[in-house]
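Input chain follows. Return structure tokens only.
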Amino acid sequence: MLSRAVDTLHIAMQESGQMNIDEKKSWKLNERHYGALTGLRKDEVKERLGSKVLARYRRDYDKFPVTMSSGHPLFNSIYSCKYFSDMPAREVEALPHGESLNACHDRVVEFLNESIFPSIRQGKTVIIAAHNNVLRALMMHLDEQDPRGQLGQSDIPKAIPIIYHLNIESLKVYFAL
């Protein structure tokens, strides 16, 4: 649902001549929620909290940032935005106010199982445009790697497509490029 990911998807669709394909958006493919740190640049967080704390928040698998409270300057623009207007209030209230890499990984894998895998089983080709932590989580799951040790360490190349071919029955990767 984040504009940069949607813009990237539209560029890829336009360049490939595929503007007519169905598009599905989900908050579960949004970038990891950095809680109270949302809206701050890395150098600001580093200056305020120190480089070790910043590194732990960014790369430790189970480390949650301080959660975003209703007093945060971006709270209303995030939780009262048009993206969630179709969701029942209880679901909006259940949205995370900050996430560890583990929590981000879990919601991405949940979306993979509930939405992406069924499309692949139907023989559809799926394109996912997302941000780093979401792509890391998807790749770790597809590559059957334990994310606990590597999710925060792997770097995703920018503007380079990563292509996975999955077996329709097993949903296991048989070719990746």
